[in-house]
Amino acid sequence: MPRPNHHHRRKPSHSKKKISICDDFPKNLPPPDTDTTSYLCVDKNGCCNFTTVQSAVDAVGNFSQRRNVIWINSGIEKVVIPKTKPNITLQRQGFETTAIAWNDTAYSANGTFYRASVQVFGSQFLAKNISFMNVAPIPKPGDVGAQAVAIRIPGDEAAFVGCGFFGAQDTLHDDRGRHYFKDCYIQGSIDFIFGNAKSLYQDCQIISMANQVSAGSKSINGAVTAKGRNSKDENSGFSFVNCSIGGTGHVWLGRAWRPYSRVIFVSTFMTDVIAPEGWNNFNDPSRDATIFYGEYNCSGPGANISKRAQYVQKLNETQVAQFINMTFIDGDQWLQYFDI
């Protein structure tokens, strides 16, 4: 029997098909435009039509009456949505997987109002399932110029659903206007929800990142809110409903950044991260008669009101009614137009 001729056997091919960085990118993004909605897509690797969030925002027509949905795969940049760009949606599939991030502080940006990673001046803004981050180092109490804002919202009628806000001091600048936060994750250490907006927070998880304190310590190293209401004529306030507060450190629910500060917590679970006195008048006793801090039906070890500051309102069901649903932010007039 003749021996096989091994010299004429075809060698196996070791070449492999080249893999593109975009092979796993969703094929249906962006979807086709409709009569009422335009879609834009951002991916820094060039897998869709824009590589930066800002370039997609800039491409939206001024004062567009259509809803402009910007689907974001990633973004490491500062973003400004100007007043001339209403009706913008920023969207992703989950706040744990996608974020817009930057690292400016008040010192590096030459002022508090310029340090935010994202600034939203345009009205009718919606963010869904995405995070906003400022990754500057966590400051110590009293550090000068260390404020590091993840987002600033001076635009009216803005809503955030399933979003994350990550930072330390002054994470979320809830500046002015009417805003709605639903199922959001908000992290920070000092005054990390601050500003003078009229906002409703529902079913949100609030996490203190303040430094751990020793057991039994009475020292305070943070605050959840710092409301900037200047007069009784300003129709603003923060209302937290069905939220939870945890994390590390020993913090106040709020401190009176301005003399008519107004914040309430309703049906919120509080761990012992909340100090027994609960609130702070910004070390100005004259504000005790003008601030409005209230709690109703809260639970958990941090919700014991027996040692609360004397000016804290122990609210009843009738008193909280005006603060706990969409009417507080006139949501019946504008939220119905959002896809939430």
Global outline? globular
Structural class: mainly beta
CATH architecture: 3 Solenoid
What's the helix-strand series? EHEEEEEEEEEEEEEEEEEEEEEEEEEEHH
Question: Any idea of the CATH class?
Answer: Mainly Beta
What count of helical segments does DSSP give?
Answer: 3
Largest sheet: 11 strands, parallel
Please, what is the average pLDDT? 86
Arrangement of strands in the largest sheet: 1-2-5-8-11-14-17-20-23-26-27
| CATH topology call | Pectate Lyase C-like
Can you tell me the CATH superfamily?
A: Single-stranded right-handed beta-helix, Pectin lyase-like
Summarize the structure.
With 340 residues, this protein is mainly β. It has one domain: 3 Solenoid (Pectate Lyase C-like).
Layout of SSEs?
Elements: E1 37-42, H1 53-59, E2 67-72, E3 75-76, E4 79-81, E5 88-91, E6 99-102, E7 118-120, E8 125-128, E9 131-134, E10 151-152, E11 158-161, E12 164-166, E13 172-173, E14 178-182, E15 185-188, E16 190-195, E17 198-202, E18 205-209, E19 222-227, E20 237-241, E21 244-248, E22 251-255, E23 262-266, E24 269-270, E25 279-280, E26 292-296, E27 313-314, H2 317-320, H3 331-334
Parallel strand pairs: 1-2, 2-5, 3-6, 4-7, 5-8, 6-9, 7-10, 8-11, 9-12, 10-13, 11-14, 12-15, 13-16, 14-17, 15-18, 16-19, 17-20, 18-21, 19-22, 20-23, 21-24, 22-25, 23-26, 26-27
